[in-house]
Amino acid sequence: MKKYTYMTLLILLVLSLMGCGSKVDSSAPIEGAAAYAEATESIMSEETEHAAEYADGDTDFGRLPEDDSASLDEMEFEESEGYAEELESEIIDDIHCRVEDNGFGYITVYISGTGTVHEEDFEDYSYIPAKVVVEEGISGIGDDVFSGCINLETIILPEGLNSIGNNAFAGCQSLETVALPESLESVGKSAFAGCQENLLDDLQYISINESNIHLRVDGDTLYLSGSGTVQKGDFGEYKPINVVVEKGITGIGASSFSDYRSLISITLPEGVEYIGTNAFRECDNLTSIVMPEGLKSIGGGAFYDCDNLISVTLPDSVATIGSWAFYNCDNLTLTPEALPADLKSIGEKAFLDCRSLTLTSLPDKLKFVDSWAFSGCVGLKSIVFPESLRTIGYEAFQGCKNLTLITLPEGLEIIEGLAFNDTSLTSVVIPDSVKVIGEKAFNYCSGLTEATVGRGVEELGENVFASNPTLTKIRVPKSMQDELIKSGTDVSLVEWY
Fold first, then answer.
1. What does the alpha-carbon distance between residue 370 and residue 409 come to, in Å, rounded to a whole number?
2. Sheet of 320-321, strands arranged across
3. CA torsion 458→461→462→463, rounded to 10°?
4. Which of 68, 242, 253, 341 would be 316's cystine partner, CB 3.0–4.6 Å?
5. Rounded to whole angstroms, how far apart are CA atoms 202 and 60?
6. Got the DSSP string for 324-366?
7. What band does 427 get if pLDDT is binned at 50, 70 and 90?
8. Which residue did the predictor score with more confidence, 219 or 264?
9. What value does the mean pLDDT take over residues 349-378?
10. pLDDT greater than 50 at residue 87
11. Which helix (H) or strand (E) holds 10?
């Protein structure tokens, strides 16, 4: 017999006994007894049917296990345990709201209980309060709970609160003061989207995310302290003007400050090892940044389109500059000393269209200049390449219209197509170590008068020296005669050696 049948019988028996002892109409006991008898007969009939079904083995409940170790008592215990878990879950999220009116229309809602506040817990109050106080015991604010509370000015959250969900305060356009506890571990996407821009001014302290990043505000400056990596969303929708990252932080995560157009300056401490992809992308009011010794890499697009960035200090420890890292930083000026001594690779389009660059040499450990790395850098006039260099990528210096002089090192192996297209080179000496020269590598060099091709070239692209009206002499080894003819080079300009 199932537990629910026993419970039903017990309840009916109690009700019957209560009915017998109460002072009611004389007919009530009779009616109660009749009802009880009818219910009992129905239940017994049901139990008889169940017994028959078990005997036949043809039942929705199936046969009892052949292993007699699994008894009915155990089955009932499992069901009871599941019921207890369900009940416990209901108890955990036990949320209560009470309203307090100061008599002048200023409404405060107090939220108490345990567990997580959900949207449905607060939906009856969403347009009422100017202030919300969440009391101790609440561990989380769920998704969208206070979303659209246009009258909400102040929210106070308790120590012990662990999480704020997605869009939790989105659209709270009157929100001025936020008191967030140190215990806070995570803030959801767009948690404060659409709040006042000056929300940051009232923010005093936050502790969020697993990396334990802390925020402190002093005027227009945001101070980040703690440990780990600064991540996008660590400071919600806030747009700081100045940022000081304090010692203990080890990384600036991907897109962490992306599109923060209010950002003017940022200071990074020793201990920061990397700047992630798109970290400061389109921070078009950022004017300077000092990077600490110990920084190892600058991710792709890190300073993409920061067109007011003028001054960058790159420590010698930086080994890689990623693709698009400083793309379109029109006002960026870098001296030879500004590039890191340990730099080994410059990624694709890393300095594309950085028109103010004034480099005259590249670092001694550099091995690879990727495609379009310095394309459009019209401020470049002369470049000395290091002996460590092995590859100059496709269109790497294309469009550097004021570049007149280059010194290519012994050890260089590949010059890809259009590498120096549309420059003002006056002469070129290609070392014997070069094995591949791509098509139109020196195309349209408006001031080129002479060129020398090294003895080691194994692959010569088409029209390597095409469209050079001032070119009068090309020195080429005799062993390359057939290759030169195939390339379409004007042999009348060739001087064999």
1. 17
2. 228-230, 249-252, 274-275, 297-298, 320-321, 345-346, 368-369, 391-392, 414-415, 436-437, 459-460
3. -100
4. 341
5. 63
6. TTTTT-TT----GGGS-TT--EE-TTTTTT-TT----B--TT-
7. very high
8. 264
9. 94
10. no
11. helix 3-21
Q: Burial, 228: exposed, middle or buried (Cβ in 10 Å; 0-12, 13-18, 19+)? A: middle
**DSSP H/E element including 12:** helix 3-21
Backbone phi, psi, residue 421, to 5°: -65, 140
Element (H, E) at 439: none
Q: How confident is the model at residue 484 (pLDDT cuts 50, 70, 90)?
A: confident
Q: 45-54, 176-185, 188-197, 414-423 — which is least confidently predicted?
A: 45-54
> What is the spatial distance between Cα 201 and Cα 389, in angstroms, rounded to a whole number?
50
Strands 274-275 vs 405-407: parallel, antiparallel or unpaired: unpaired
Beta strands in 48-117 (DSSP E): 94-101, 107-117
Instruction: With residue 8 as reference, give the H or E element that holds it.
Output: helix 3-21
Q: Give the sign of the dihedral formed by CA 106, CA 108, CA 109, CA 115.
A: positive
What are the CA-CA distances from residue 137 to residues 107, 108, 158, 277, 289 (Å)? 22, 18, 8, 39, 43
- What is the separation of C-alpha 453 from the centre of its chain, rounded to a whole number of angstroms? 48
Q: In the chain, what is the straight-line distance between the N-terminal and C-terminal CA atoms, in Å?
A: 107
With beta carbons less than 8 A apart as the criterion, state whether 275 and 257 touch: no
Between CA 168 and CA 141 the distance in angstroms is 7
pLDDT of residue 135 exceeding 50, the answer is yes
Dump pLDDT digits (tens) for 89-102: 343 457 888 888 87
Question: Do β-strands 311-313 and 186-187 pair in parallel, antiparallel, or remain unpaired?
Answer: unpaired
Query: In which element (H, E) is residue 217 found?
Result: strand 213-218
How many other CB atoms are there within 10 angstroms of residue 288's CB atom?
14
Q: Is the four-CA dihedral 171, 172, 175, 180 of positive or negative sign?
A: negative
Q: Is the dihedral of CA 98, 100, 106, 108 positive or negative?
A: negative
Phi, psi dihedrals of residue 364, rounded to the nearest 5°: -65, -20
Indicate if the pLDDT at residue 317 is higher than 90: yes
φ/ψ (deg, to 5) at 286 = -70, 125
Among 11-20, 155-164, 361-370, the range scoring the smallest mean pLDDT is 11-20
Distances (CA, A) of 262 to 367, 467, 473: 37, 47, 55
